Amino acid sequence: MKSLSIIASLALLISSVVAQEGATVPVTTSAPSTYTCDPNTCKIENNCLCASTSAPGGLSPADTPQFVTVTYDDSIQEALMATALGMVNVTNPNGCPGHGTWFVSMQYTDFSLVQQWYAAGNEVADHTFSHVGTPSAEEISSVKEMLNAYAGIPYSKIQGFRAPFLNYTKDTLGLVSQQGFKYDSTASAVTDDMYWPYTLDNGLANDCWTGICAAGQVKLPGLWEIPMYSVLDKANVPQLMDVYLAGTPADTTQWSQAAFDKHYNGNRQPFGIYVHPTHLTTYPGGVDDPKEKFNAVIDFIKSLAAKPDVWFVTNQQLLEYMKKPVKASELGSQTYMQCQQPVIAQDICNGLDDDHNGVIDNGLINSCNFGTTSMKTCFNCPATAPSLSNPVPASAAQNGTAGYRNRIGDNCDTTWWDPIGNKCLCTTADCEVKSVAVPKSETPSTTNSTSVTPGDAVKDNGAAQIAGVSTAVMAALFVGLSQLL
Ligand SMILES: *[C@@H]1O[C@H](CO)[C@@H](O)[C@H](O)[C@H]1NC(C)=O
Ligand SMILES: *[C@@H]1O[C@H](CO)[C@@H](O)[C@H](O)[C@H]1NC(C)=O
Ligand SMILES: *[C@@H]1O[C@H](CO)[C@@H](O)[C@H](O)[C@H]1NC(C)=O
Ligand SMILES: *[C@@H]1O[C@H](CO)[C@@H](O)[C@H](O)[C@H]1NC(C)=O
Ligand SMILES: [Zn+2]
């Protein structure tokens, strides 16, 4: 089922965690952080922010919103998407739906679902083309090409990266920066290093025990790091992804609650729930039905969402906040926290059920078959299967023939782009949109249509078995459980 690869040994650690996407993470280390940053020279006006455990903007914890980021890794497929949607099926304090971020790898991904995920207000980010531990430049760049060509995501909205197996290196982060990404979210945070997101102008401040924080290692001005915040299990072992796999539903709920409380009753650093949806998805005839685990995770999520100052956000929304922090009471009115959808009378292939007949993109989705693989998309099927060297092959259809789909341009957002009509339905300041906000804890009500400027419009698998290893050893083991789904 899995193969173990031991890839490094160094440094003193007390205990460690093993994740499929992951390395061992020590609870305490002997290697001191060499990170230094002067907030007088590193200022947010210049897109620079020092790593800090304190809330941005000098806000007191009581005034600071508690963000929860739910993130998903690997391919987007139908059964996985249902699981993922269930995990952000909450209402934020301003009545807008909660949202999450999916780090997508390309193999086995259904691009029509990617588009629907994004159209609902969620974020898509880059997890490499074929889920490799040491990605080439093409492994990273091809994802952007494909998400744009086959899911109609504007290049400017693809901003994040997470390394497969959480196996990031200085070189990988360099590529991510070169390719214009705005953030990485791969580094792990345990206790002392529970930093709010920060820029890498002064290097990394997380995972310092590996040596990555040392001078001359990473220095990438303007690139943000959104650390992955771990959950400590009962043996005090940091669990990073798929926490629920390490214990019974009752156990993992308790560990997760304790970790959340540490954030919520502390400096309100964002709290993360990081999953491979496949582990919470019930498959027909599946052997170990995770239904009980899934229900426990959903109950935990709903309990968090019941708090008046807890917000389920995408990583991009979190970074918008970092750039201009406001009190929790003002968050709901920020532009990036709104939830509006276009008012379009007929279904266009944009990831939404425009005509409200219960079917998204009714009859408009292309099914592309290449013999051994297939994919679905609102855009043209390529003549051959996409590959790493040719992620967007020439289209099978000829321009000018019926049903030809046109790629989205830089000046349009996904939900306004009609690939068949070849036009952007929102190019002026008075596009008709409707809010999908509902009063919290109440039933949906009819909402009024309003006008907004285009900029405001709409929005802004691996099997991860976590095996806790609790050891007092002199050698740190980087253990990657490598498996591709
Ligand atoms: C969201 O929650 C509602 C109410 O509990 C439920 O009816 C609906 O099926 C859920 N949707 C998803 C996608 O899980
Ligand atoms: C992680 O990256 C290192 C350095 O590039 C590489 O040697 C190793 O094979 C990678 N591990 C995995 C699991 O891909
Ligand atoms: C297809 O044809 C339309 C109309 O002539 C044109 O606007 C569009 O740019 C063409 N698309 C491509 C990819 O050449
Ligand atoms: C819709 O707008 C009207 C007029 O501004 C207002 O009276 C009404 O309460 C609004 N309805 C909702 C559901 O917001
Ligand atoms: Zn992955």
Structure description:
The chain is an alpha/beta fold and 485 residues long. The protein has a domain at 43-336: TIM Barrel (Alpha-Beta Barrel), CATH 3.20.20.370. The chain is built from eight helices and 24 strands. The strands form nine sheets. Strands 3, 4, 5, 14 and 15 form a five-stranded parallel β-sheet that branches. A hairpin with a 4-residue loop joins strand 17 (366-369) and strand 18. Helix 5 packs parallel to helix 6 (291-305). The termini are close together. It binds 2-acetamido-2-deoxy-beta-D-glucopyranose (4 copies) and zinc ion. One 2-acetamido-2-deoxy-beta-D-glucopyranose (NAG) binds next to loops. One 2-acetamido-2-deoxy-beta-D-glucopyranose binds next to loops.
